[in-house]
Structures are given as C-alpha cells and as structure tokens.
Amino acid sequence: MATEEEFKALLKQTHRFLNLMYAMILITIGTMVTYVNNPDFFDLSSEQMIVEVPIPAEEDRDRIENGIHVRTGFIDAEGMYIVIANCTNCHSAKLVTQNRMTAERWNETIKWMQETQNLWDLGENQEIIVNYLVTNYPPRKAGSRRANLTEIEWYEAKD
Length: 159
Description:
Blueprint (H helix, E strand, L loop, with lengths): L1 H36 L20 H4 L2 E2 L2 E2 L10 H8 L5 H6 L4 H14 L8 H12 L23
Antiparallel strand pairs: 1-2
Helix pairs in contact: 5-6
C-alpha cells in the first residue's frame, strides 16, 4: 500500500510541475508576442509618449458650415437644436436622418419609443421635432431608382 501512496504523491508532484511549466510557457509566449507588436513596451529608460486628444471648444461643437451642423450632419434649420437634444441622446443623428417619414409616421414612432424604449414625454417639443424632420428629411418618392441605362455600345464576347 505504501508504494501506491508514493506513486500517487509522485503523480501529484509531476502534475504540479507540468502545470507550472505550462504557465511559464504561456507567460513567455505572451511576452514575446507583446515584444514583437510593441518593442518599446519593455524599454523602461525611454520616456513614455503621452498623446493628448484635443477636446473641441464649445463653439466648435456647434459649428455650422454650408448650412450643415458639423458634429451631427443635421441641416441647420428651426428646431435643429431641440432635435439634437432629444434624439441624439439615444442614437446617432444618422439613424434619425435615414428614417425619412411623414408626420403621422414620426408621431407613431415617437409613441412606440415612449411605450417600449423609455423615451420621455417630449411635450411641446414633439411638434417642433416632427416639423423639423418632415421639413428637412421628407419621405423619398417611391421608385427613386436610377434611370435605366440607354445608348450602350455592347460588344461580342470572344471565346
């Protein structure tokens, strides 16, 4: 029985040793991958380069160029800032402008967002928002595909 106990102890010791070796190999590989991707990572003598990202000044955040609000891409018109304040809190301006709808559909969408997405009561702002969107991003007419190609010079495919 003593030999079986010794064998189990030896097996446990071997298992621990192999786990330690496996961990050391993983650490070595991780270090090598880090070094290959960024050799300066381990250079403790050099000063770390600090990159400062400039925060746009308040006047830059609301800059209008060629009738377009630069930060959001909204058309500069009456009600734009109310749309920005109420719509871009939850999603991008692009999502708003790509959904070109009628006033009725916008009101239905707002009601749906209030019932299912926790949109707050817009009060008097709802009419301003809907008017802005319908005026500046009206629904596109059906069939606005490009015209068929005409007067094309076709050629014979040769084998």
